[in-house]
Amino acid sequence: MPAFDPVRDAVLNSPQTANKPLTPQTPSRPLSTRRPTDLAALLNADADPPHRPSTITHILRTDDDDRLAAAPSIRKPLKYNPRNRVSPADSILKPMSQAEMNMFKSYEGKGTARLGKRKRSPQVEPDPEQPPAKKIAGDVAVVVDHYNARPEVGLAQRETSPILGLKKFNNWVKSVLISRFAHPALKESKFVIRGQRGTSRGKILDMGCGKGGDLNKWAKARPAELMAVDIAAVSVDQARSRWQQLRGPSFQATFAALDCYTEPLSKAFAPAKLATPFDVVSMQFCMHYAFESIQKARCMLENVSRWLRPGGVFIGTIPNADQLLQNLEGVPPDAPDLTFGNDVYKIRFEDRVHKPLFGHKYWFYLQDAVENVPEYIVKWDNFVQMAADYGLHPVYKEEFHDVFSEHREHPEFGPLMVHMNVVDADGESAMDEDQWEAANIYIAFAFEKR
């Protein structure tokens, strides 16, 4: 018995068309030899002539054999023509050299080294004792992304900065603060470690440590321990690496990524680490970010005061609110925006009239340092009143220019300016007028816990 042919069966059993019985014609070639692709092409082709029947009867007519043979296949061959090619067209079949293979195997996770990671890794169950990581959004994300993206450069490259004079001057002001207020507090500390390098005394908390720019200053104080936190995790890693590269670091150090304006220090450090109180808390060029809201400002002050011993000091540097608001008032009414500054720094406010105690935002640019990040006004009287609620009382507040005037003739800090290249041996400053103006938008402060 011949094999069952569904097409032949459909034709033989189809109804009559136009009152004429369907009589299968003797095809020029057996139905079983006709290609399904040709059959489909004829079924889907446009009718030509228009009166051609729409049933499949005409397919079997001998006068349609020529049309069947000439019918195009619906499977048209596609030419290989990829777009957005990554590799050259003639490089696909070229084998990689041994040197290329070695290069890609050690190419920081790229190339052939990535092929071994195609399988989905097993999901790790979250640690029930650790809270889920918080997603950073809004203005905080802008600040974090900015400081995480800034690369850590070596000493040689730092010496080529176009605002090198301003940076050295700011470092000198911080050195004055540390020497005047932190050193005495550390010397009075009861936390002592005796080792091969001698006696180390005192404990420091560096809130907003950044990339560790003050590590050398703290090393000169010979503390027993330093604990440092910053919201930018990449900066924290760079600070830790910087500490490890110090020439024989004489103090212990612990680093952690933490938002000190929304979370307690106890989330980053074990209770044993916080059992011994701090003698000094330092916040350099970062405290103003806490004044986005009253909640953040109070959380910051709680972290400062809770683990600071009585008699301990809180030192820092913040923008001079009086100076900034005075410059805002000086912007002409017909100015296109509320911007002032010079080639070194620029500040842009969003509102001239509304001046809240918290969340009074402006955008700050500092050449070779800060690229338009949101910052917040810290009104001094409001800050002092809040700090008093946490047992913190001011003992020092000066504009940077006044810090310079007060200490330029000091037997210790005057020569230190020459040593730090703030001025040369003849007293000539390394700063130009624009840098000197930018320096005066900051104040230095010190509080004591009572």
TrEMBL record:
PROSITE patterns for the chain: RNA_CAP0_MT
Reactions listed under catalytic activity: a 5'-end (5'-triphosphoguanosine)-ribonucleoside in mRNA + S-adenosyl-L-methionine = a 5'-end (N(7)-methyl 5'-triphosphoguanosine)-ribonucleoside in mRNA + S-adenosyl-L-homocysteine
Coiled-coil segments on the chain, per record: none
Comp. bias regions, Polar residues: 13-31
One of the record's GO molecular function terms: RNA binding
Residue span, MRNA cap 0 methyltransferase domain: 161-450
Region (Disordered): 1-38, 110-134
Gene Ontology cellular-component annotations: nucleus
Alphabetical list of InterPro entries matching this protein: mRNA_G-N7_MeTrfase_dom, RG7MT1, SAM-dependent_MTases_sf
Classification via SUPFAM superfamilies: S-adenosyl-L-methionine-dependent methyltransferases
Keywords: Methyltransferase, mRNA capping, mRNA processing, RNA-binding, S-adenosyl-L-methionine, Transferase
Keyword field contains NADP: no
EC numbers for this chain: 2.1.1.56
Transmembrane segments: none
Function: Responsible for methylating the 5'-cap structure of mRNAs.
Protein's recorded name: mRNA cap guanine-N(7) methyltransferase
Organism of provenance: Mycena maculata
